[in-house]
Amino acid sequence: MYIYLAEGETKLTIIGRQTIPFPKIDTSTNIKTSNTLKRVDDWLIDNAVIEARIRNDDYNLRQFENINRENITSSDKDSAHLYLFK
User: pTM of the predicted model, to two decimals?
Assistant: First the structure.
């Protein structure tokens, strides 16, 4: 399942919490596209961290907090997505 959001939009998580607003989207150049993808990845992980804190879920909180933000893997993103929305 993919989630399509526009800049500034929010979505309800599985527990009914509003996400932080979706980040700025700019694909006018390759560098700006790359920066946009980084912002989107950070948005996803940031929301997973917030969600884990609200749920008092120390196990997943540690996992999400320790994701290498310079190299977020597909499995990191999948885990955060499932945690938030499934």
Answer: 0.93
